Amino acid sequence: MDEKLSLLRAAGHPLRLRMLSLLTGVELSAAEVARELDLTHANASYHLRLLENAGLLVIAGEERIRGGVAKRYRYAWRQDPDAGPPSPEDDEVHTRAIAEELVRRRRLRADGPAIVSDAEMWVEPEIWQRVHDLVQEASGLLHDNARPPRTEGTIHVNLTASAFVMGDGE
What we know:
Layout: H1 7-11, H2 14-22, H3 30-37, H4 41-53, E1 57-65, E2 68-75, H5 88-107, H6 125-144
Antiparallel strand pairs: 1-2
Helix pairs in contact: 2-5, 3-4
């Protein structure tokens, strides 16, 4: 695999997907990510570096800790709209990782309201555009309002969405 991973290939690992979710609402060091996800510091650092090299994380700051310098990472979730489509291989790796991560998250589901929807159908383009815009708005609303894990007054939630126009092939 190339030294510099593509965005989707870098995010196409269940652990790295969890890191991106974790770093949406807070800036954390590798040690803090390791504690939150029950990893070794070395393992957390390795995956954080891959995500940073792919441009998915930004360095939000640095702090001195016990004679060293710890980087604080944040997920740059708003991606460049001009980046172009991913390769089919990268897209498949990312989709499989999302599916695997969704199974893990589903096991953690608490009692309460939930929406599960799966659809492959034909609709008018205007309806499709409205659905696309609503899903994008919901995703942005959650990302923009994410808080650090276990913040008082928050609940742990999941939104996994994959919405796209289908080709005519079977």
